[in-house]
Design a protein that fits this description.
208 residues; mainly beta; Immunoglobulin-like; 4-stranded antiparallel β-sheet; globular
Length: 208
C-alpha cells in the first residue's frame, strides 16, 4: 500500500503558495530558499479528509507520478482552481479544502519542470502544477540533457510544451548536467542538478 501522509493546510500553505510569482520581463533568478514544507515532517497517518480530497479530484489510488502526469496533460482552463499541487524533490504536496496530502516521489527519480521563454518569465522554486504558467504552451522544442562527467545523453528528443508553458522531465536522482533547449533558431542552456535541495521549477532559460 502506498504511504499517504496527511497534514493540515496551515502547516505548509506558506510553502506551497510561493511556488510561482507573477510574470517578470527578462531573465530572472529563482530564489533558492528552502521551504518550510521541506523541513516540516507531515503526519504519517492518512485521514478521511485527505482521502476525500484525492477522491474529489479523481486522484484516489494514484501515485505522485500518475497525478503529476494527469495534471500536466490538462488544459490550463481545465485545471482545478481550488487545488494546489506542489512538486518537491521527494514528494508531491496536494492541498485544498483545508487539508493536504503528501505522496512520495520514487527515491531514484526527480521531476523537473522547465518553462523556456523569449519575452516573459517568473520566479519559481517548487513547481506548482495548478498555478505556474509559461509563455510557450503547445510549441515543439528540442530538449537535450548531457550528464556532467559521464557524458551520457539523458534526454535527446523533441517535446511538445504542455498547455501551461512547461516541459516536464523525469530525471535520475542526484545527477548534474547541462540542459539545452532549442526552438525556432533560438537556444537556451542551463546547468541543472537533481539533489534534495534543488528546485523542481526552472524558469530562467531564455531562448536567444
Amino acid at each position: 500500500m502506498r504511504l499517504i501522509r496527511t497534514v493540515l493546510l496551515s502547516t505548509f500553505a506558506v510553502a506551497v503558495l510561493p511556488g510561482c510569482a507573477g510574470s517578470t520581463s527578462g531573465a530572472v533568478t529563482a530564489e533558492r530558499v528552502p521551504t518550510t514544507a521541506q523541513s516540516a515532517a507531515p503526519s504519517d497517518a492518512s485521514s478521511a479528509a485527505g482521502r476525500a480530497l484525492l477522491a474529489k479530484h479523481s486522484f484516489s489510488g494514484k501515485s505522485a507520478v500518475e497525478i503529476i502526469d494527469q495534471l500536466d496533460r490538462m488544459a490550463v482552463s481545465s485545471r482545478p482552481t481550488d487545488l494546489m499541487a506542489s512538486v518537491r524533490p521527494r514528494q508531491l504536496v496536494v492541498s485544498g479544502d483545508d487539508t493536504g496530502v503528501s505522496l512520495p516521489i520514487p527515491d531514484d527519480r526527480f521531476y523537473l519542470s522547465v518553462a523556456p521563454y523569449v519575452d516573459t518569465t517568473h520566479d519559481c522554486f517548487n513547481h506548482s502544477l495548478t498555478t505556474c504558467k509559461g509563455e510557450m504552451g503547445g510549441e515543439d522544442v528540442q530538449v537535450n540533457l548531457v550528464e556532467e562527467g559521464a557524458g551520457s545523453v539523458l534526454v535527446g528528443e523533441t517535446k511538445t510544451v504542455f498547455d501551461n508553458g512547461f516541459v516536464g522531465l523525469w530525471l535520475p536522482k542526484d545527477i548534474t548536467g547541462t540542459l539545452r533547449i532549442t526552438h525556432d533558431g533560438r537556444t537556451a542552456e542551463s546547468r541543472i542538478s537533481t539533489h534534495d535541495d534543488d528546485p523542481t521549477c526552472l524558469t530562467t532559460m531564455r531562448l536567444t
